[in-house]
Amino acid sequence: MPHAPALLVIDMQNTLVAIAHRAFETVATIAGLRERARAAGVPIVTIQHRGEGLEAGTEGWRIVPELAPAADEEVVHKTSADSFLDTGLDETLTALGVTEVVVTGFATEICVDTTARQALSHRYDLVLVADGHTTSVRPDAGEYAAPDRSIAHHNEIYRHIDFPGRSIRVLPASEVDFAVLP
Fold first, then answer.
1. Helix, strand or coil for residue 93?
2. Active-site residue numbers?
3. pLDDT computed for residue 29 by the predictor
4. Distance CA 166, CA 37 (A)
5. In whole angstroms, what is the distance from residue 40 CA to residue 144 CA?
6. DSSP class of residue 173?
7. Per the database record, which ranges form the Isochorismatase-like domain (predicted)?
8. What are the residues whose beta carbons fall under 8 Å from the beta carbon of 102, sequence distance 6 or more?
9. What is the pLDDT of residues 60-106, one digit of tens each?
10. pLDDT tier at 138, thresholds 50, 70, 90
11. Architecture in CATH of 5-175
């Protein structure tokens, strides 16, 4: 089967980006990836969460303007951390002929991690964009890892996780080349 990537942009919505660590940098990184994906003819799939505080149609629920999907791009709506659960994501990717997902978005430990693992379980190869996902700003005290540590921790896990038959890579956005992904 020929290699065919898609860029996933997970939950980059106004309410969530407002509480995101390194929000400006992450949005800019994903925007650059979107431009490069479009130029290479790679599909972009935007994932949009709906739930408490993210009611459909509200300003907070909308995707940030810099990452708003174009009219010809797919949008998948979800209600859990898993972008595959009770959504049409798998069917959308299959219809597009996708074999690998390039994962970006919010929040590292929840929706990004859950969706990345589910993509592997659904037999997609995976690129986790090391500088293209983020988490919430939070105090250093408490049980959560600090944002930079959490992002680094998840990047490291994906450098070592093993799913037989799947290609798994962690790349900075600057090294993602949609034209030559294996």
1. helix
2. 111
3. 98
4. 22
5. 38
6. G
7. 6-136
8. 5, 6, 7, 8, 33, 37, 42, 127, 129, 176, 178, 181
9. 999 999 999 999 999 999 999 999 999 999 999 999 999 999 999 99
10. confident
11. 3-Layer(aba) Sandwich (3.40)
